[in-house]
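hi!! sorry for the late reply, been swamped w classes. u asked for the two structures so here they r. pasted raw, havent cleaned anything up. first the sequence of the first protein and right below it the tokens
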Amino acid sequence: MSGTTDGAGAVTATPAAGVPIPPVEPSPHGLGVSLAAADAAAKTEGTFPYAADLWAEGLLWAAVLRSPHPRARILSIDTKHATEMPGVRVVVTHEDVPGDAGHGRGTADRPVFAKDEVRHHGEPIAAVAADHPDTARLAAAAIAVEYEVLDAVTDPQLAFEAEPLHPDGNLIRHIPLRFGDAEAVGEVMVEGLYRIGRQDPAPIGAEAGLAVPRPDGGVEIYTASTDPHTDRDLAAASFGLDPERVKVVVTGVPGATADREDPGIQLSLGLLALRTGCPVKLAATREESFLAHAHRHPTLLRYRHHADADGKLVKVEAQILMDAGAYADTSAEALAAAVSFSCGPYVVPHAVVEGWAVRTNNPPSGHMRGEGAMQVCAAYEGQMDKLAAQLGLEPDEIRMRNVMATGDLLPTGQTVTCPAPVAELLRAVKEAPLPELPKDTPEAEWLLPGGPEGAGEPGAVRRGVGYALGMVHMLGAEGTDEVSTATVKVSGSVATVICAAVETGSGFSTLARQIVQETLGIEEVHVAGVDTDQPPAGPACHGRHTWVSGGAVERAAKMVRTQLLQPLAHKFGMSTELLQITDGKITSYDGVLSTTVAEALDGKELWATAQCRPHPTEPLDEGGQGDAFVGLAFCAIRCVADVDIELGTIRVVEMSVAQDVGRVLNPRQLRARIEAGVTQGLGAALMENLRTTRGQVRHPDFTGYALPTALDAPDIRIVKLVEERDVVAPFGAKPASAVPVVTSPAAVASAVRAATGRPIGRLPIRPQAAVAQVVRQ
């Protein structure tokens, strides 16, 4: 075969004599195929449009002045020197907020700018717009604030008796759960105290945005929002505008494992743009990002497990105290998840659980993958290891004797109606082959905990094998109205999906393309950008967009399919159900009809809009009872870890994962989500903890806050994916990324317990906690 080159440099193949050209196979598409992400090339080539790359004519730059104190009374704010600096256009404080002064995703209790008191380190005091970013930062630093420093309340246990830190008080929510007989006892009882640290979302790119004033007196905000309609409503309320006069346009989101954005940045930008009449841009420093956005709730947990002599659970008693930081945010939701899943995916006849979320002067806490569920998983799995040791059982055996199944009850009284193949998952990881032991040779020294050139000795290394079972809820809970709207348009041979579901790295944009390809047989599918002119789709969390937004796309695509097929079905006197679309061709069951989608369209443009709304849930009552969740997802992980019992260094060798996924929609994407979740959980287990001293954040940067790298990531083996479809979920699929985040920290802790014999009650695990009580001679 030879080739010629066209004017664009592309090579066009031409056949040599007698050599036939094989037909070009169409690229696979539709559900169940590993379709590549449409933006993959742009992200790898550096051309993807992130918020920090935005530009506008006449641009001004913003900077925010933040509190250096965790708690202080504001006596005065003097902006005179800042406003007189050359190049400074405006300085805004709490006095310049025309609308509601409070905002927040769950509870609107956080001020745009602190007024009388600052309640956490890094709280916004004022914002500046200037003609150069350095000028803006210098002007912010020139604002003189007189403080009366107050004693910070940083221990959540002291928040109950401390003076109110907020007009709404220190207690955000209390859930007293009672299930079964509170007086029941078992023949065996174990107790434990567990502490979970403050994990940061650590987004790839720090928060950034651009606000542009509109001729109608409104404003457009361009930012990497994960919940644009909520952000629009918060902004409109703060600006004193109707929501229709505020537009949020979602720019490229560089990954998100939580709400990601600090809404205060968007509010500051919008106020500055409205005051100056000019576009205003802000790109937060990494330090500002650490100080301002929400983190995982640090949690203190006390547990007592009762069991009979055979290891069957009788009762679980627990106290769960979550540190919300200065403001409520989504802490009430996180607490509900923690209390509801406090017993884990196990059958527990009786439970007495007390849960509290309180305000402190620590950094703010909020939504993060598996919030609430991750903290209690680490605790109840620690208790299962203790029970196994007390009864002389293997850790996997004590779990197998108690696993939950479909039809069992949660301690909230809700029946588990979705598939719950917990025993199958545990069996899969237990039966998976174990990794080989490293050889005691110099060539394998890099395998030692601590890495190459480490101080450890091979003789001090012990290998541990640990197990953990985790669960999360899907979608919102406790009566949240989950709804999403999508539109599918078809013109020629191209389909377009319009849906306000933000692509945060979860793969929704790819899934939407696959749904339309599967339903309409059209290979070229585009997903439109997201802004608040579109109907709302809700936040990008709890696997919502796979279920609710994906369901809306599917329904809209099916409506378009009906519009496409009805004329043909009528012409041939048959039902549309007797026609099928495959690879762009429409055929009838008997082969009489065969045409292409393009021919059937005949130049027409078809479109349809549809909504998806799951069945309703209800709030937990005063006893912690109620059908609060739409569905559940489960995971089992076996961790193999090597521990230097003299130095306390830990190397996770392998994580074997079995997961309940409902249905595999994109194999490659699913594997990536699971591996990312496991790695994020590994960070929470071994290194990630935003440390504070009396409320002051220490080292708010990637020097002081360690993240797992490729060298830390273990071999992650997905040994089984259980595809038992959830009949109430579109496509039968379940969310994939949150449940391995929940489960993997508990599995790592279990493996370290097995290697050292130490209780391991704190995450991340400190080296001193992994030093065995008996070391080698």
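now the second protein. again sequence first, tokens right under
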Amino acid sequence: MPLAPLTSDKLYHIAALNGLSDACKSTKHLTPLDEIVGQERAQHAVEFAMSIKEKGYNIYAIGRNGLGKRTMVMRYLNRHEPNGNSHTLYDWCYVSNFDDTRCPKVLKLPAGEGCSFKKDIENLMKRLVKAFPLAFDNELYYSRAEKLKSELTTKQESTLKSLTKSAEERGISVSITTQGDYQLVAMNGKEPHSEDSFAALSADDQQVFENTITALEVELRGIVRKLTEWEEQYSDKQQKLDENIAKEVVGHCIKELQLKYKKIADVKAYLADMYADILDNIDVFLEENEEQVALAYASLDKKMPRRYQVNVLVHQSDTRKFPVEVEESPSYHSIFGYVENATYKGTVFTDFSLIRAGSIHRANGGVLMMDAVKVLERPYVWDGLKRALRAQKLNLSSLEREVTLSGTISLEPEAIPLNVKIILFGDYQTYQLLQHYDPEFKELFRVTADFEDDMPRNDTSEEQYARFIASIVHDNDMLHCDRKAIARIIEYSSRQADDQNKLSLHSADIANLLRETNYVARASNATMIRCSHVEQAMLNQELRVSRLKDHVMQSFVTGTTLLDVHSHAVGQVNALSVIATSDYQFGAPSRITATTAYGNGEVFDIERSAELGGNIHSKGVMILSAYLASVFGKTAKIPLTTHLTFEQSYGGVDGDSASMAEVCAIVSAFSGLPLRQDIAITGSMNQFGEAQPIGGVNQKIEGFFDVCGIKGRTAGQGVIIPESNVHNLMLRKDIVEAVEKGEFTIWAISHVSQAIEIFTGNAVGVEAEQGFYPSNTVFGLVQSKLNALRR
């Protein structure tokens, strides 16, 4: 019984939109979908990871670009605010460590209070800058300071006066300079002794003077020590006076802040340290040393002492909003932050106020999303990320120091506790590489969100897809799509999925098509997107990328590529193949020929011998060789050597989708029966001759149909495909119409013997018990010819 060809209803799955009510005339009447359609598995994985607070439950989102991975995660986070589920947010500030300025301290404040605290400290500094000079520039301070100074002066003068009087009584004059030098001179009455008058004295008198001077020198040195001690005591008293005044000023100004922040332990401790430090650095506020003060005030923003600034690293502007950061350029500095340098009067310096936050600081308490490949491409980023996740804290270290191992002085800020979920977006290859080469990856990214490429197609999913289309229309402020346009886009999605019963989940493709369709509709001054606009947008898309297809088809027009689509030929068959570029693929038929010569049954693959055939193609040839041997060589070797090749193929050939075509060509060469050239075939096979599915079936059929149009169309032309590929058919409208009119035929076969029967018009034959085939069948004819050669 001859095999019935496929009817036109099997070639295309029309979107009836039974899931939509009859009242729904366009996307205007549809509720936009607030989630990514068909990604329930990935969404459950994200929900699970976000619910687990333990270390290591970060997410690796797997899938090709355009599946809406990031959009799905963002929409989930916007709908399900985890902030109410024990997620406490904080502001993080860096302040000076007054004991060690190289190690700034970190302050943890309730969310939203960081900038308020910074402003409070700035106001405090403004008050102190004004209050200190006033406190030290008034009559009360001057009188108290003058009193201390006069007490010291009185004591010093009294002591020196007493020494001078005692020396005069012993005939010695004492003079002391302001530099602390002193001179003791023997007196001759009221005048100092000259050298001559002193020499005229007796030796005893001279000795008396010398002994007296020596004794006075000893006494004077003791007095000098006392003077020094009194100076120190005066300095201490003066400092004590200054401190008491400073304490009164600072205590009065800071008291309000201490009350305001008494419940925040970190801030309370910092204010106490700052209080003590201000007392030790009053000169900064009094501007006693201009150079020192200038450097102390050198700032990139406000005029206040740098050591008392507050560097708000992270400020939660909305305390109710869950922080979500998307890092588009994940370099080491952009993620982990860095320390800037400032220049003042030729001096380069840095301090805690120049620490800058990275995206992981801003995402602390929330989620940080990055592209996995970009993370791995940038030096030191992956190691830094793992280090932070392992330790659950952020150490801001200089990348330059890690790279150069130099001893340059740098800051070592206190670490910030880290509570963040990292979501990496990547493909399967990157995921497998990380799994294989990095043992820590499994521990730090325990949740895999695997995004689907397609979803089952039914009335419910079509309704969801229509709402998904509506959401794109609403989000991008497009013209609304009518019912037929919605149906055509769903059919396009099925074609993209290469399956009548599935819908593609590559939302980027659908969004791009809608944008271009919207452009076409607006250009034609339409008020709504209609099916014709969708068709035109698809034609425009194809036109932009189909230059290579036009070039290949032109070779059939000019006859450069030889192909017969009308007659019969022995050992010659038209096979179907797909040519692909980076963004487009199309079908083009090619001729396969087989010739035989007396030999030992070997199938000689010319493509493989010329190093143009790939491994999969070679495997296909071996499989068909095994099938032929099982059919014709059970009792004796096949006495023929077959040479098999793709004609006019000058590039590489790979894949096994030509296996059945090659078998048909070889059987024709063995039997001498001609094959129909108006039929092309595609499909692989196993060792038992069973047809196996192949890819690109739509493009292959369309390619042969186009060539038939070029060469001249006849009613008998058609294509043979594996039965298992029928569900992949979403053919062009013109091909469906041609099949419906009987102008083109598509057969779906389950075994290569059915293809041989279609090509030759003869029965293949059923093997008898003795291993023989009836003589009036194709295999019977082959068997008789082979047996004749064997004899």
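hope this helps!! also noticed smth abt the second:
Residues 289-293 have pLDDT under 50 and may be disordered.
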